[in-house]
Amino acid sequence: MKLNRTVIIAYWALLAVVALVGVAAIAVRTSQGLRVTNLTSLVPWGLWVAFYISFIGLSAGSFLISTLIYVFGVKRFEPVGRLAIFVAFIAMLTGLLFILLDLGHMERFWTVFFRRNSRSVLEWEIHFYNLYIVILLSELWLLMRRDLIRWGQGRGLKASLCRLLALGSTDLSEASAAQDMRAVRLLGMLGVPVALAVHGGTGAIFAVVKARPYWYTGLFPLIFIVSALASGGALLTFLYAFFGRRDKHHRDLVVSLGQMVAGFLALDLIFLASEMLVGLYGAVPDHLATYQAILTGPFWYVFWIGQLGLGAIVPLALILSRHTRASVGWIGVAGALIVVGILGVRLNIVIPPLTVPLMPGIDSAYPLGRFSTFEFTGLAGTLFALAIAAFVIASGWIIAYLTRLPRLPVERWLARAAGLAVVAGFVFMGLRFLDVGIAPEVVALSGAPARLPLFFGGSLRAQDPTFYSPSPIEWLSSMGLVALAVMAFTAGKLLLPLEAEAEPPSPQPRRFPGFEPQASEM
Amino acid sequence: MAKKRYGMAIDLRRCVGCEACTIACKQENHTPPGVAYAKVIKQETGTYPHVRRTFLPILCNHCDDPPCVPVCPVGATWKREEDGIVVVDYDVCIGCRYCVTACPYGARYFDFGDNYYEPMNAFEEQPSHEYGKTWDRTNGGSPIGNVRKCTFCLHRLARGEEPACVQTCMARARIFGDLNDPDSEVSRLIAERRHFRLKEELGTGPNVYYLV
What we know:
The complex is a heterodimer of chains A (522) and B (212). Chain A is mainly alpha-helical. Chain A is globular, with a radius of gyration of 24 Å. In chain A, 66% of the residues lie in helices and 0% in strands. Chain A has a domain at 1-36 and 372-499. By secondary structure, chain B is α+β, with helices and mostly antiparallel strands. Chain B has one domain (6-211): Alpha-Beta Plaits. Chain B has helices at 20-29, 98-102, 122-125, 154-158, 164-168, 185-192; strands at 6-11, 39-47, 50-58, 77-79, 86-88, 108-110, 147-149, 174-178, 195-196, 208-211. In chain B, the strands form four sheets. A four-stranded mixed beta sheet of chain B has the order 8-1-10-9. In chain B, strands 2-3 form a two-stranded antiparallel ribbon. In chain B, strands 4-5 form a two-stranded antiparallel ribbon. The longest helix of chain B is centred in the first third of the chain and has 10 residues, at 20-29. The radius of gyration of chain B is 17 Å and the shape is globular. The two termini of chain B are 33 Å apart. The chains are: A mainly alpha (522), B alpha+beta (212). Chains A and B meet through helix 4 of A and strand 2, helix 2 and strand 6 of B.
């Protein structure tokens, strides 16, 4: 089905609304400092750190999958190669922006480049991140070089951009292409250990903290790497399934990407089970308390519904089931679900271990609980209400469009229900930020501060200093950064040669036995 | 002169849980809400009528091998060679809070910029004199956005005074001194009395001793 103009406008409008609200939230955070968060000295890391490790994971996983092609010679995956490296670059930048937001003194971030502390894992990570970004950009440029030159020969915005990015290179010969590929292979070989260090090291940031038994295990950095491979691969599967070129390899490739991701996800679940069984069997009080917080705490659904249900069982079923395993649409949906599920994994890595008091009674020895000082009043409230309205209208258009794509009525209904549930959830959360949507008597009874988003957290524990639920500014700035990342990705997809030039159509398209290709299939 | 190794002994048989140390520390260092370098864990054990209320005053242990120090990406925190006090350089700290998660004792705090009164009252507006400098919180700069912790009242030691919590303790439960000097009161008490330290098993080498 052709994209019509309204849907394109709705798509950009949706992203623009979320990004604008996010930028406003970032401005509030920058001018007022971290007092606009719900973080405390007991739970000093929260939503932003969870998003940071999620995006670093997406980046490392996506890059490692590109090395399968360029280093280990899995030519089958070639069509996603450039996409993988571009996604890795965008995700890396987004992750670093999240950690920048989290700094108490953002203006001092650049001091990490010359104030060295060689014993700090975080300091090592910063250097790995820089090296990694250089590798990503070099590889991406080498891979796109010849297409940039070709695309740069025309007129218009796209051609000018490509001419600019070609950096004056004009050599279109086959020999230069072979040289490019040799360099890509070398960079990829260097990139594998660097990418492992980037995300394994991010895991080590947590794993070296002996104060927190849940983090302090040798398996932790490995879990980071495996879940990075699962989430990065899943993101690529989702993007390639819906936005990749529909040539004769498309379905085969989506299916094999999906199966690879299922393998990584299964390995991730085995690691999780191992950690969990050992931790629960050992029953060291702090360790046990962390599992209690994850499994039965106020955010139990992040594990049971997010991480395990929608993030693992449903996508595995979609990828492996006889009915859906050859459907590009369903495997793409499975990819998106895994990406969201791994976000749940990251939230559960960062927050629950911090909510466990380091010593009995230390959480209540002195009042440490605090809540964001930010409230939507006056103009900010009106503008935010307008933004919610714009969000609902734009997402309504997009849902209406998406639900026309699937072939079967049941799939259309599922798409409608899922879309409406997501929009309703966001609107409910937005209204809570505006102090709308729950009777004041209920708030008084439960003791919840009005601005606490009940949808994303329990209410009864609002007085508990070990309770952390992200503040409106934390949520809105995060959503804004995600929207900006999606905008950057879309712009890159539209303006850059992220796919190799098409091959001439083959007379005999390969078919899956018993599964006829459908023109309108999602 | 030999290097000092400052430490503290806290006599749990003398502590009455009055929290004068908490208050004295907050006054001395002008700490905002949510920051209390010294505090007292209060717990009830047993069931009525056999019940006992126990007090455990806690503060930074100024460990021999502090887990909070190596994690800092910019080296803004270190253990001083000359007296063993673990300090934070407010002008260098970027506020990443890694050390807050790494301390096994919950002895590090983040200054979120909250105040008791809006606008600040006259007492809150006064600067803190930690590290012998003047830290003004009214302009939104450091120590807001920094990690803060107990310094054994370094600025008072420089004037030849004891830490505020030690001076104020009415039961004289806190004894402060140089652990490298075998004749200091704190060294003698540790040598003579039964004592324990918190989470010694982590290899941190805490320098706050609890006399029992």
